[in-house]
Amino acid sequence: MRMKRWPLELGAAAWGFAEATVFFIVPDVLLSVAAIGRYRRALLACLWATAGALLGGLALWVLADANDWRALFAALPAIDADMIRNASSRLAADGLAALFVGVLTGTPYKIFVIEARELGFSLLPFLLVSIPARLFRLLIVTSPAAAFERLTNRWMHRHTQRLMVIGFWIAFYAWFFSVMP
User: Is there a contact between 93 and 129 (Cβ–Cβ < 8 Å)?
Assistant: First the structure.
């Protein structure tokens, strides 16, 4: 079964937007499953997910009442007040480079959006740095999924490969939600 061109890309953009605002499951789930057998399309979808995240970040920036967003975010799974304070501290200390650190620490982009605005960062530089930071995060998951597909292609059906990637995400989130606040 082949995905039509626009549904994957639009789905990635919508998921990127949702995760940048209030959703708590990363678009990497869709992108890594899409990378099985469709790596080039998945790479294109990474760009769409990034665009969606930027639009979500822009929406948060414009609608920002940091205290309201902090309270909402702290009610989401795997986010607490300490994570929000740490993101703010990292931004204050490291500037926009903190967006790249957030990728490696599991700190959601949405937190960096509201904290950067609160700390007085300018919108355009924030969005420009967001592009490589978001793409980096998406590619460090999408590319290994494609490598998994290539490594197992000779003895595993694509449907099984996709099911294994989905199983990975189920196991990952079970672990992630158990160790995060």
Answer: no
